[in-house]
């Protein structure tokens, strides 16, 4: 996942705590009756209310006193006060200013890429031009003052912090991997190797995913940090990883490339890890009593088209109608890799899929797709799998709206379009259960039909 946030370290810690508490509650809410369930939902909603409040606070924390008391009214900009650079690239029909932001609407008299380059060269370093679509007049140029905080963003990367977080995440995922198999490393530290297949597999998937974003961003000349890993001492052992974008993407091509590189790179590790891990997984007949724990319950191969295909390739005739697969630690890491990839590919806000949808279809269509996807996720959580509700709430409060590129006009190439379509097909194959007509022929059980 890529983010462009400027939160303080303490605010980031509060974010993580507020996200950790609901996950713990959801994982421990299986018992206790209706009374404990009601309290769980009360605490859950309070935590997400705190997250929403912090999101609002973070957006206003950087404002100066002058900005906080600025007049909210819109002022028309006379022709004589309009920057000459704007007039050189656009036939301006409407020009307004609100809270220090200039908005110029009309039609460009040159391609958007050339207009952006000309504006940057003539306006200098004190202004940031954004070229966006305008439903009425064709094009809008938004002229922003370069934020004073940008000098802070340019400071050197503290690589020791990235390595420290990675080391802590390695420890927590190793602990979690061992605990999933019934081994408590606090009591048996010498048995740490039990948790390594899960830990190494999951960290490889997450790390390669983020490095895909990182190198794609570097290829387009963007200022970006190395991956931040997020360790947690329970559940899966990690909340994943993210990179922080310190500069805006220049155009929709760069936005698409950075977004799609992560999921595709992660799948290059997740799929082989799953195939290898399935070789050591156990196939359980329907009448078998399975053990407890996160890895003990059998997994239905038919719950996903892609997982069903990979399971059939790896297990062959062992996998019959009604059988379950008890995933090995490495296979579980690969399965998580598919699940994490699917979440990131949801075409919503600042998720990878949201950036891709905006780059492929533009702002207006991309936001419409995002709204449909968000409500679809809630409906799936309510009527199909309640476990999705946590992730739906997480995405609703965290994803927000995608950050626009500087040139939001020029479309991406047809080749990138087809890559985007293929990637969203992969998303569908991960999320959609195996159709009824196919699971009988493949001798794979589908739990939804």
From TrEMBL:
One of its GO terms (molecular function) is peptidase activity. It is found in: Membrane. It comes from Stieleria neptunia. The keyword Electron transport does not apply. Belongs to the peptidase M50B family. One of its GO terms (biological process) is proteolysis. Residues 199-367 form the Peptidase M50 domain. CDD domains: S2P-M50_like_2 (cd06160). The keyword Magnesium does not apply. One of its GO terms (cellular component) is membrane. This is Peptidase family M50. Keywords: Hydrolase, Membrane, Protease, Transit peptide, Transmembrane, Transmembrane helix.
